[in-house]
Known about the structure:
A: 797 residues; B: 156 residues; alpha+beta; Ubiquitin-like (UB roll); DNA polymerase, domain 1; 2 domains
Amino acid sequence: MGEELLHIGKDFPRIAEINKVTGKAVFIDEYKRPGMLYGKILYSTHAHARIKSINTEKAKRLPGVRAVITGYDIPDVRVGFLQDQTVLKRDKVRQYRDEVAAVAAISPEIAEEALQLIEVEYEPLPAIFDPVEAMKPDAPLIHEFDARGRPIRTNILPLPWKFQEGDVEKARGESAWTVLDHVSTTWVNQCCMGTSGCVAEFDSNNNLTFVSLTNVIFGAINRIKAYLEKIGLKDRRIRVLNPEAVGGSFGTKLDTDIYEFICIQLALITRRPVKIRFTREEEFFALPPRQPARFTIEQGCDKEGRLTFRKVDALLDNGAYTSWGATTPSVMMLPISSLYVVPNVSFQATCVYTNNIYAQAMRGYGNPQASFAVETSMDHLAEVAGFDPAEFRLINRNLPNSTTPMKLKITTCPLKECIETVKEKIKWDEKRGKGKYRGVGMASLIHVAGGARVYLSDGTGIRIKVNEYGEVDVVSGSTDQGQGSPTVISQIVAEATGFRPEDVNIIMADTALGLWDAGTHASRHTFVSGNAAIRAGEQIKRQILELTVQYLPKIIQKTIKDKKRKDPEFKEPELDFTLIDKPDKMDIKNGFIFPKAQPDHPYFRIDAKEILRRALHVGTGQSKVVVAEAFYDPSTEMLNNEMKGNYSLTYAFGTAGVEVEVDIETGDVKILKLVSAHDVGRGINPTLIKGQIYGAVYQGVGYALKERLQVIEGKVVNGNFRDYKILTAKDTVPVEAVIVEDPDPAGPYGAKGIGEPGLVSIAPAVANAVYDAIGVRITDLPITPEKILLALKTKGG
Amino acid sequence: MKREITFTLNNEAVVVEVDPRWNLLYLLREVLELTGTKEGCGQGECGACTVIVDGEAVNSCLYPVMEAEGKVIETIEGLQRGGGLHPLQQSFIENNGVQCGYCTSGMIMSAKALLDKIPKPTEDQIRTSIAGNICRCTGYVQIVESIQKAAEKLSR
């Protein structure tokens, strides 16, 4: 390596987002267009029912109402990943969040009032809320027909997730020790502080501008274009952009949601810009939460503690329709097949329709669910086989430059260092198995960290220009949900171009300006955009140095001439112009160009602005601007039909260690210390990385101990912050984030993604610590006081 | 129907006609167009709408607008002094106290109400002062650090 990096690894502050601290940042809340109407949605009042009639007459007569639409007013067109729902439901509702009608009015208050005037008559149908019941042959059918109109005879989705490597049966027979566990995880709401919303506007050519909170702006175009084509608007141009600030995402903005299609329909019908913005209540019941899952996991090891096999069966309550939740097994696969070295692996997942709310992505996708199963079971197996759980993990740790059963190519892998760091910092050997109602536990993780090929392109583009004032403008097709991408990309662009981070201005999230991007998801942004930024940035530097070769001698000759004119005594210096006669002989740092052989050269060290100005204002028809772009698509593979393939160019590892104290009177679990060590490749901005880890840890502790969207007979009953408890500042978790650096050859300056990993191992680490403290394993999230007291009671007698 | 109220908003006298059924948040955002104050839940549970009324941090979404009569009200827009950032704002930027930014205005206002009263607060006092401000991004760690560092700067 050798060369010192000026801006990488530095805590550059988030000055790009200064509007967020002054109150000036425009979220969707503030986004307004002239003549804009406000849309509101009427949801079902039943979990499963036929719609007998809908009467909108009274609502339509309310002054200020501009449109009231039902499924009968818009084309009967299906949307969604499996095309299993319509935008407004016409014949039947299958869940409480089913959208039955929508209103556009001149104010949100009038729109809300109009909703109350819509009369819907339902005929209730038998509903089913348990996926096991829903699989039975005589269970009521949620869907009667598929997207092609063919009759459906089962509630089981046509998505058979199946993975097999080696011979699990044989390995089981040869194992010295085996364990079998039943593990389950629940619905968790992402709880973005900014609620969902969008503004749709058609121009006079029926081209659509859609201001949306999506983190997949080009994917949103695909879905909206397909929808518009189906309703007869072919070849419409669509521009998707984010407002200045999104207000958090955590998975909610991955799919194009039904409210977005409704907004587009209202805009089309009223010919006016229409905004929909969710209330907090809607955010809780009308957005897809984290996918719940039930696992049966079996693992075995030999006498030396080496894993022999892992067999996992997963059952996913799909809810009434299909969004990305049904694809979370593609990421559950990651820890199941590849966390620790395990030669024989079997995994299958079944997704089942019920009349519950449907789910989608949340930070970590399926990884937190599956890692909870794998890592609590690892603890169990270590105990049965007589190994210290930390030692057991070290025995089975992943190794650098290895290939897993899923055909993932592990490149860099400091898992050993992560486990050992946690062991030391949590005082593992001193505390393990010794405290009265106190205990320590740990869990590790593997996650994609070098892109994630879920689409045929996992690419992203970056365009950079530098103007004659030395201002670097970067256009990225990615989005920022709040993680700080503008700061991180500024640092990378500064490093690659030779300017300063404060010279760099980033424009993001506009499909009309940015090059294609697969989306800011799967912890991929820093990795893919960083790689694109380096490639474009190096071209910029090259172009400027080429212009320097051309113009610097002229500038210097003019300088000398001027000096001579002013001062006849001035003695012309003897200059060695061969120092600057080739681009390779020079470099740019912090906006200054200099010869490598003599960086402080009194004449050849020059502000890049001077070259850029000179190259632009030439007056001969030869003027030049500096602009470059790069499109970077990592050389990864799609999963094949056996669910194998290297879908990321590198993988991140990490380990969390937790010390807990359990109050056996109340069942409360107190976290005394939490250490989270993460393999980040190279830290571009350590403070921002720690911010990602801290935030993810708090979400992980919530997932472990508190958060559960209570869905009773299909209905969310705790959809507010009073009843759905997320951690507050008073729920202090003494957390230490440890950055483990092992630069990855594929990463931008060695960096790996870190957006999701921080959450993944928290819940199993907490569960394992609780076991160490009180000797009971809670394998059903969240680990509430009630469950602890019940388990203690059962254990006691 | 509408009634006139007078109060001080960010050091300026305001006379405005209001509907007595409004809450303060509605007046600030929809009428006075001070949109830095956010509505995260509308039920007084998230703190995104926090403003300072007569020195106390309050949830403006629950605050009846008629109660504003004669009060001294501060919002995030009033924090900048002569164009420069308030030390709290500066500190949130420097210490990564802000991520998605939605809770930030309310968080800073709660912190300001604290520092106005207790210039050198303990970590516990800081955590208590923002206990009603929910943040989903940061785990509060760097928010607490931002407030601590701003307090140090302010009390120097």
